[in-house]
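Hey, I was hoping to borrow your eyes for a little while. I've been staring at a protein lately and its backbone has me curious. You're getting the sequence in one-letter code plus the fold written as tokens. Would you mind checking whether the tokens look sensible for this chain? Here's the protein in full, and shout if anything looks odd to you:
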Amino acid sequence: MAAQSSPNANRKQILRVIFISLLLDLISFTFILPLFPKLLEFYRNLESSQASSSLLSRILDGLNTYKRSFSRPISDRYDIVLLGGALGSLFSFLQAIASPIIGRLSDKHGRRTALLWSMAGNIASVALWVAATDFRTFLASRVVGGLSEGNVQLATAMAADISDEKQRGATMALVGACFSIAFTFGPALGAALANIETVVANPFATAAGFSLFLIVVETAYLYLYLPETLPSSRPAETSNGHTSKNTPPTTRSNTTRTNSHALLNFTHFIFILHFSGMEFSLPFMTYDLFGYTSSQTGKLLGFMGLIASILQGTVTRRLHPLRVVQLGIVACAASFFLLGRLTTETGLWMAASLLAITSATVVTGLNSLSSFESGAGERGGKLGNHRSWVGSVSWTVDILYSILVGRTRNSVLKSDISNRKEADQLLIQSFEATIIGPSPSRNAQDHRNHAQF
């Protein structure tokens, strides 16, 4: 077990432990991203011949009912896209519930204890994926993973514990660099491992097994080398040479702050409202528009990670967090502009470059700003609340989208447009563009029709 030592005296050592463990965790986490389309296609084909009472069959029936609500049929090829979006929303929603709880527990019982319990849940989640020979087991792995995923927020809290305000931006950039490096290597490695079939009943067991290995190694590494960083949980040296618990720090410093947590969380919400799920849904877009394989998607995500890691090590760590956020917002708007007019692979890679800039800047900057507003004794809970907005947004967007589509459809049917069939067709095209982006085969006349509509 790691010795209880002062984090200020061993800041570099603790940062090294945080960096290595978080890197292992995120590489393991990104294994599955390029595999999702083929993985869900595998389970759909596997259970298509089974009884209609299977869980996946009932979910697909629900999707088909939703699709039949439109006057023009939607192709079954969208089932994988919709199912992937639903699973991503479920994972994020569960993470949104768990993040504040994990954060508050870390404030009460210590970061190290909370992190080790979170790792136990992660091990259980990936173990279920290894054993997932049916969709029900795979779904259970996502549920367990969503409820136990606290590594990132706890790593952020620990990094803030051992950094003063002058060091905070560079420290948060180091945490962000873990994401970038993981996206550089993780998806490509996951796609490569998926080509190695070791279990016939689960073609993705090799990738899942290596992911489990990384998680177990990370847990052992944390148990052996990570000290407690929460000031109120570290023993302090007394005048007689004995150790005693530090008195809990005040939950809030007397320094007047510019930004409230509510403002930062709302800003985070507005950003994620437009950015949420892009990295998750990008494999589905490339799969549907350009027929990308898992390997090709892994290369694209790796390219994004490489750009983001370079930016994290150069630009992000040197700029003020507010400037970092502003840079990322501009890049995000430009990337969405390109994605809205996507017709070629060159455009896709240009948009991916801008998305990489966004990934390297906005969330890292907002995390830094949020950590400035937290005392040591409340940092876990505050950062947990801040992170929970990331998860809850995906869920909220799905609900709001369904409502807006329903209302738009009713408005179209009640409008003065004489050709109701044309109106429904335009609505379906808008729906398709929102889910997977515009089709390369769509011609200029389609775009003019959308503008008129």
Notes: The chain has one domain: 11-51+76-233+260-442. The CA atoms of residues 99 and 114 lie 11 Å apart. The chain is about 75% helix and 0% strand. The longest helix spans residues 379-414.
